[in-house]
Design brief:
There is one protein chain. With about 500 residues, the chain is mainly α. It has helices spanning about 5-40, 45-75, 75-95, 100-115, 115-125, 130-160, 170-185, 200-225, 230-245, 265-295, 300-325, 330-350, 355-370, 375-385, 390-420, 430-460, 465-485, 485-490, 495. Helix 1 (about 5-40) runs antiparallel to helix 2 (about 45-75) and helix 8 (about 200-225) packs antiparallel against helix 9 (about 230-245). The two termini are about 35 Å apart.
Length: about 500
Amino acid sequence: MPELSRRRRMLVLAICCMSLLIVSLDNTVLNVALPSMQKELHASVSGLQWTIDAYTLVLASLLMLSGSTADRIGRRRVFKTGLVIFTLGSALCSVAPNLETLVIFRMMQAIGGSMLNPVAMSIITNTFTDPRERARAIGVWGGVVGLSMAAGPLVGGLLVDSVGWRSIFWVNLPIGVAALILTWKFVPESRAAKARRPDPVGQLLVIGVLAGVTSTIIEEPSAGWTSPLIIGLICLAVLSLAGLLAYEPRRSEPLIDLRFFRSPPFSGATMIAVCAFAALGGFLFVNTLYLQEARNLSALHAGLYLLPMAAVTGVCAPLSGRLVGSRGPRPSLVVAGVGMTLSGLLFALFDAEAHTPLLFLGYVLFGFGFGWVNAPITNTAVSGMPRSQAGVAAAVASTSRQIGSTLGVAVLGAVLAGGVGASSGPGRAAASYVHDFTDAARPGWWILTACGLAVLVLGIATSGDWARRGAQRAAALFEREQEAPPASASAGTGSSRAL
């Protein structure tokens, strides 16, 4: 792809950020609308979990396929297709007659969404070739996440209170159409120098792992560990994972290239993404239900309560991008881990939900910590890899985020359903329900505290000199493969791919 002028690069960044905005805004807006959806559609807690996790599950399953497909047939082409599918899926969600069709249309949204964020990140990586400029661009990208978190609860609350929960999907329509037109006019086409072939077996195995794990966590509280459904789902997850680990290293062009994980920074970024976004997904799910169900706040007032967290995230995200560009990922990851850990401890030890000043302090601390984590994840995932692998590397990082979000909603939703469901009832006093909710959520807060500690420890452990040397050795594997003649590369496939 030819070098673009600075003005054109900024325009491409803005267009890519529009896709991130609608995908991120969709999730934050939806969280505020959950109680209204629950009443109108007569949904259980597990039903609400599926409205979120059906989206993130499909998204996580298809991100790597979309990334490799975009590298092969053209990033702009796949990006435009994703915008069309996502926008159409949003329109259908707004007219869903029941919970089952809403979940199906959310899955359609996810198919389109899988073609947006990782492909947009690949476009950014190939547009901004200077490492410092790329880090700043990724900081802006992370700032859009903060913007969506800040705007989502307010926009969602206003729409739900004034028009109804269905209107939350209308927000995506004008942004999606505008992004499609601008992409067609201004984003140049690009492809990887060495295209990767499809891997349908690997794709099915990935879906089996994620679907088995997520469904087990969500359905276990109602079905029980000994039910045939749960046993079957566990077998599906285990057998799919075993098949994935056995099959993928034997392919010359796998869906998941396990050599990526020889890079300590890349492996660390993947695990950090899972932990950080599990904390975010669970945090938003529990708190939006708490504010509206236990405190009886309206959707708009619940959005205003969450605003401090979102605003702090929006301020910190671009600062993190600049810090990563000048000082590397470690300082941002340390700050992120400390902030998220302190927030979790505040809820776990001091019942911050029951005390408004502590509640807001917990929100601010979590937003502060999460605001610093996104830029180092993305930068670390793509900066140590050759540009020809940017799409797949970015897709793995994005997949890790969605897996984390899926697990966070599934795990904390299951914890909450098991604790609150048995003790709540129609005639239960509000003060008693608040107490029950606080007790039920406490194990979840300890889980979020553990996620924050994991971000801190992994951030320190995978950002030192030895980790950078490991990243250089991993990148050299791909560079030698790309430079080698086709015949010799083919002949050496078996030994070079061994783990």
